[in-house]
Amino acid sequence: MNNRNLLIVSTSTVHGNGYLGYCEDTIKQFFMGVDEVIFIPYARPGGITHSEYTAIAKKKFNELGFKMRGLHEFDNPKNALLTAKGVFTGGGNTFVLLDQLQKLDLIKTIQSRVKIGMRYMGTSAGSNITGLTINTTNDMPIAHPTSLNALALVPFNLNPHYLDPDPNSKHMGETRETRIKEFHTYNSQVVVGLREGSWLKVNGNSIVLEGELSARIFIQGKEPYELTPKDDFSFLLNH
Amino acid sequence: MNNRNLLIVSTSTVHGNGYLGYCEDTIKQFFMGVDEVIFIPYARPGGITHSEYTAIAKKKFNELGFKMRGLHEFDNPKNALLTAKGVFTGGGNTFVLLDQLQKLDLIKTIQSRVKIGMRYMGTSAGSNITGLTINTTNDMPIAHPTSLNALALVPFNLNPHYLDPDPNSKHMGETRETRIKEFHTYNSQVVVGLREGSWLKVNGNSIVLEGELSARIFIQGKEPYELTPKDDFSFLLNH
């Protein structure tokens, strides 16, 4: 993955801001020089259609100066990816997204393209699948992919929309931290809890956190801890 | 399922109350006449061991006047169920629970025993699996069962720990209601959102909601609505 070029974004939208509004400069810079970005709409937030979802992303990307087509518009999505220079996978339901990528046999295609430099941006579910597996998604399992193995563009797992425990809550459901600790009872990979408004930029073997917040790092058998954008994240790629 | 006798409880614990404290009279009445209740500890909340989990449940059930053994204590769990008069499945992770029941080939055994009157109580994950599938669990998919088909002791799905949207939240993750609506993009069964402090009592073809709160009913293609403990829930069994 020496030529990988990834933008792993926690959420498309932060509270009080329009779709992708808060990170548009980052997106412009990330896709600079790419004429057309291919949108992967398979996560279908709220069950909207591929076309409806693509229209939302396209409007924003057009404003930012990029052409955009949805992957569902191509007769042969695999071929479309083989010539794509940049891809953006939107959020929604991670199970539905991974299931569709598996059914269309696109996992290996995306992996091999990223390996030779195709730029990949994801938000939410689209970020979740850049990790080793989707075992740390927050989503409801409304579809049942054959396997939870994901794109493995990075050698760890993501938890987008990472949410701190609410000390005032009277709800007895598990906190996010409890869930990720349970994950580590059965799985060993590192999990990065990425708060809304944060993103990881991965370029070859360089990885940095951007945005104003810290990220929460979960390592099996250790107490979770915080890393800020000034800290070194490279151990995530070299362990 | 004419002789089914189920207690489908949203949560083991409500805020400010000890384990199963708020519903102990209901439990006593439900298992009345049963000498020993078998505990199914497979959901392992927080990753605790089967023995640790059983000790917690056993302490409470002993206080209430019942003997208790964990299903993991038996050399042959299937045989243990074949003579059990009452079963309690505790909460934790629904994927881990279902996965274990599938691996031990216990699904059909529980179904056939419930059909002829073995009393079944569940809390949280243990309630979730009484529905048709676990596609409406809130849990993190830290295990990957072969299928999401559950015990189907009732012909609908459950969403325990049902949580109303927080109007003050700035978090952009999906609300519970949005998630269940997404579920209905791909699945048609009714979903009952069971709030903490509520339970369903099912006896043959009778079903009632108990506790102080209403339940939220999700029917594909309709707006979700509330039913109170005074309302008729029998349509859930007869559709």
UniProtKB/TrEMBL annotation, chains A, B:
Gene3D superfamilies: 3.40.50.880. Coiled coil: none annotated. Its EC number is 3.4.13.21. It comes from the Bacteria. GO terms for molecular function: dipeptidase activity. The keyword Zinc does not apply. It holds the Pfam family Peptidase_S51. Keywords: Dipeptidase, Hydrolase, Protease, Serine protease. InterPro entries: Class_I_gatase-like, Peptidase_S51. Belongs to the peptidase S51 family. This is Dipeptidase PepE.
